[in-house]
Specification:
single chain, 382 residues, alpha+beta, Butyryl-Coa Dehydrogenase, subunit A, domain 1, Butyryl-CoA Dehydrogenase, subunit A, domain 2, Butyryl-CoA Dehydrogenase, subunit A, domain 3, 3 domains, four-stranded antiparallel sheet, 10 strands, 14% strand, globular, oxidoreductase, Acyl-CoA_Oxase/DH_mid-dom_sf
Length: 382
């Protein structure tokens, strides 16, 4: 469902209102305690902003990619942790939207859309991060379905989510074409979780290892056909990387907002800091970068909605530029606040810590450059 400019403005206003009124006040506490952002997530559920890409047929709002990016930006602007928790719902939903049966979609997406369940996406492993095809988690066919054994790492919402889209090798001799996708429920026998990771940022977003000790699954837990897992995973990431870009834009915009407010009030040498031209130039550069990152992100969202053959490269470019922008802008914001930026009295130090992960997850920025270059060279060779 494509949206008009007026509809996008309306959803942005709603998301901004929820973020400012019901999420921002808890952001520092969530970070300090490293606790699940229950108040913020509840607010998103009540406003139907927690999983906007799920179609209306399954109880969602059926938002397009641009609307999803706008919502992600506005939430991350005040609390990237809360946005990350809800963003994992979309990572869970997309493999089902791309390859699941109608019965599977009804079973697993409706509870997510209703806010009754939380989703997660389990792809990475201790020795298979960027090199997804090197995964060692195995799914062996049985008379009744499948049996899974292995370990997943860096799983957002690990231990908290009710359901996981998980990838495992079903044919060890087929290389990347031997990976398949499954839905695993939290209460499945043999499933357990590691201790929460002690992270630099996004501290309230639970991240754990997921352990599969001969987890038995019925046949209807397989998504798509055996061997389609990698294409499902990559198809998902082609779409969700735009969400990471939007998250990065939100973090950067939030830091810029704080910096502008601070230098407009703080006085040194008898003058307001905002009157110093050198600082004005820093703010201008920050604003230009944020604007450019937002436009790249929105352009990638439009390509996704159109099903463009270059949407993977577009999402990679948006994620690459926006995440680098978030890191630069938040660092500059800390610098503009001076000593105040280095302590927790102001949110920019948290935003700087949160920004770093956007350069790493859903494919490091080095991987994004490979995606972009391969697309460029393959089209040149045609």
């Amino acid at each position: 469902m494509s949206t008009t400019t007026e509809e996008v403005d309306e959803i942005r206003a709603l998301a901004r209102s929820v973020a400012a009124g019901r999420i921002a006040q808890y952001a520092a506490e969530v970070d300090e305690a490293g606790r699940f952002p229950s108040e913020g997530y509840r607010a998103l559920v009540e406003a139907q902003l927690h999983a906007v890409v799920i179609p209306e047929a399954y109880g969602g709002v059926g938002a397009d990619a641009l609307t999803g990016a706008v919502v992600a930006e506005e939430i991350a602007r005040v609390c990237a942790t809360t946005q990350q928790v809800s963003g994992a719902n979309e990572l869970f939903a997309w493999p089902l939207l791309l390859a699941a049966t109608e019965e599977q979609k009804q079973r697993w997406l409706i509870p997510i859309a209703a806010g009754e369940a939380l989703g997660a996406f389990a792809l990475s492993e201790p020795e298979a991060g960027s090199d997804v095809a090197a995964m060692t988690t195995r799914a062996v066919a049985t008379e009744d379905g499948w049996r899974l054994r292995g370990t997943k790492r860096w799983i957002t919402n690990g231990g908290v989510a009710n359901c996981y889209v998980l990838f495992a090798v079903t044919d060890p001799d087929a290389g990347s074409r031997g990976i398949s996708a499954f839905v695993v429920a939290k209460d499945d026998a043999g499933l357990s979780f590691g201790a929460p990771e002690r992270k630099m940022g996004l501290k309230g977003s639970p991240t754990t290892e997921v352990y599969l000790d001969d987890v038995p699954l019925p046949a209807d837990r397989l998504i798509g056909r055996p061997g389609e897992g990698l294409s499902i995973a990559l198809g998902t990431l082609d779409r969700t990387r735009t969400g990471v870009a939007a998250q990065a834009v939100g973090i950067a915009q939030g830091a810029l907002d704080v910096a502008v407010g601070y230098v407009s009030e703080r006085r040194q040498f008898g003058r307001v800091l905002a009157e110093f031209q050198g600082l004005q130039f820093m703010l201008a550069d920050m604003a230009v970068a944020v604007r450019a990152a937002r436009l790249l992100t929105h352009a990638a969202a439009v390509e996704i909605e159109a099903g463009s053959p270059t949407m993977g490269a577009a999402g990679a470019a948006a994620k690459l530029f926006a995440s680098d922008t978030a890191m630069k802008v938040t660092t500059d914001a800390v610098q503009l606040l001076g000593g105040s930026g280095y302590v927790k009295d102001f949110p920019v130090e948290r935003m700087m810590r949160d920004a770093k992960i956007t350069q790493i997850y859903e494919g490091t920025n080095q991987i994004q450059r490979i995606v972009i270059a391969r697309d460029l060279l393959s089209r040149a060779a045609r």
